[in-house]
Amino acid sequence: MGGHRDKIKEPMSWSDENEHNFIEILYEKVKSNALQCSTFTKDEWGRINATMKTNTKMDYGVDRLKGKWNRLRKVHRMFSELLGHTGVTWDPNTNKVNAVEEVWQHFYTINKSDYKIFKREGCKHYHILGEIFSGTTATGGLGNASTQLPTNSEEERQLEDDFLNGGVHVHVETLDDEVDEVPKTRRREEIGTSGERRRKEPKISKSDKLEACMAQ
């Protein structure tokens, strides 16, 4: 019985600093294409654990780091679903989510404890989590990006394309003096699945498109 008890890992605390450090490591790994499908290889997890041990002086172990990875991915997905709901806005500078009580009550039926945290604290690493998890998470539907006007049909098709080919990350513009972002060199761009920056094409009317096709 003692041997079985020894295999049970006790939970370890995650300070804000250690979580910040872990997210930085994940970001660098994802940007270096170390991600295999939706996770890392066994050897890569070992290297991540070694880096965490060096940086934080704490040996979380691979299993706990994987658990934290899954938890962060869940947080990103849930917060994306919240921001995608009609009428919900979020100020990334104050980290405050604005929604009527009826909306909060709806999300409380899904996961009361987590959405209460979002209501109180927002999601402080949402942008960088989007860069990490945009290709490994999927939300339950399409919605309007917070702080933006309702999408037109062209924008809706773009959102649908992003959703079908990867994860959905609700993009919110931030100010240049935004603080506590990870990492400091983060590019301000909408998260897509191709890894390339998306640029809005000039709007062309259907008649102009038809004429262009006929002229070819």
Question: What's a concise summary of this model?
Answer:
InterPro entries: LIMYB, Myb/SANT-like_dom. The chain has one domain. Helix content is 50%, strand content 3%.
Descriptive terms for the model:
single chain; about 220 residues; two-stranded antiparallel ribbon; 2 strands; about 50% helix; disordered N terminus
Structural features, described:
- The chain is mostly helical and 216 residues long.
- The relative contact order is 0.11.
- It has one domain (12-193).
- The protein has eight helices and two strands; from the N terminus they run ααααββαααα.
- Residues 176-216 are annotated as: Disordered.
- Residues 13-106 form the Myb/SANT-like domain.
- This is Myb DNA-bind 3 domain-containing protein.
